[in-house]
Amino acid sequence: MEHDPVLGFAALAHPHRLQVMRLLMRHYPRRIPAGEIGTVLGLRPSTLSGYLAQLMEAGLISQERRATSLLYAASVEGVSLLNAAWMGDVCGGRGWPETGSPGARVRNLLFVGVGNAGPSLIAEALLRTQAGEAFEVFSAGIEAVDEPAPEVMTFLAQGDHDTGLLWSKPLGTWQGEGAPQMDIVVTLGDRAAAFAPDWPGGPHRAAWRLAPGLSLAALQLDLSARLSPLAALDLAVTPAARVQRVLDAAAEPVIG
Predict the structure, then answer these.
(1) Taking every annotated instance into account, which residue ranges of this chain make up the domain HTH arsR-type (predicted)?
(2) Are 60 and 75 in contact (CB under 8 A)?
């Protein structure tokens, strides 16, 4: 069937359907149960069902049944077709945002956790060690705590990471006038993915799940393995689409 961009634009022309799309994109490539979508967005099941049906008809999301549950995920193919129709057919190739395109400047990457006391600080320290000056690395928490977890700081110090640059911060630290422009925003854990706000400037986004109950050593090994392909990229020549694929490929834990 020929792609009809009008269906896509119409499906997104409602604030609640747009919220659903944003939520699924935050979690991509994970599939989300309909009940979880409704709970996070405060939507009644009957209302949400209609929104999901219209987004599916437009080819922007996909559905999968597992036992008695219906799970939904964003369709990157559908979104790409809509982008191509808008930027290509409508705009003649003009208007692609500069954010995320190859360039020589340092990339700003933000890790977002729930409390910015554990995993997000470990990820910040690891990427800073692995990538050197290729990235300027930041972290923050949706529910910031006063101090990093002492056991995390001790563990990182014993691994020869510079802990002097690590401190717990609320998201507002990196928002507003004078804040650095973020090129990549990675949420760590499902709660962070669900409640992190949309970031200005259209950065790359990724939602990385965390396996429950990991020791600090296992968590470090897991995050290190997922960060290595990103740290190895030459960002001066890597197309934006390739950067996003690397980020999405690290969505699930490799140690669990």
Answers:
(1) 1-94
(2) yes
pLDDT in tens, 45-74: 999 999 999 999 999 999 999 998 999 999
3-class SS letters over 145-206: CCCCCHHHHHHHHHCCCCHHHCCCCEHHHHCCCCCCCCCEEEEECHHHHHHCCCCCCCCEEE
CA distance 214 to 55: 37
Instruction: Give the phi and the psi of residue 96 in degrees, each rounded to 5.
Output: -60, 130
Contact call for residues 253 and 210 (beta carbons, < 8 A): yes
The structure tokens listed for 84 are 């191509």
Q: Which of 226, 248, 215, 178 is nearest to 30 (CA)?
A: 248
Task: Give the distance from CA 30 to its chain's centroid.
Answer: 11
What are the residues facing 61 on neighbouring strands? 74
Neighbours of 209 (CB within 10 A): 17
- Which strand (E) or helix (H) includes residue 120? helix 119-131
- Under the banding of pLDDT at 50, 70 and 90, the label for residue 200 is confident
Domains of the chain: 5-90 (1.10.10.10), 107-249 (3.40.50.2300)
Query: pLDDT tens digits for 2-13?
Result: 678 999 999 999
pLDDT, tens digit (0-9, with 9 covering 90-100), for 70-90: 999 999 999 999 988 888 888
**Cis amide leading into 29 (omega within 30):** yes
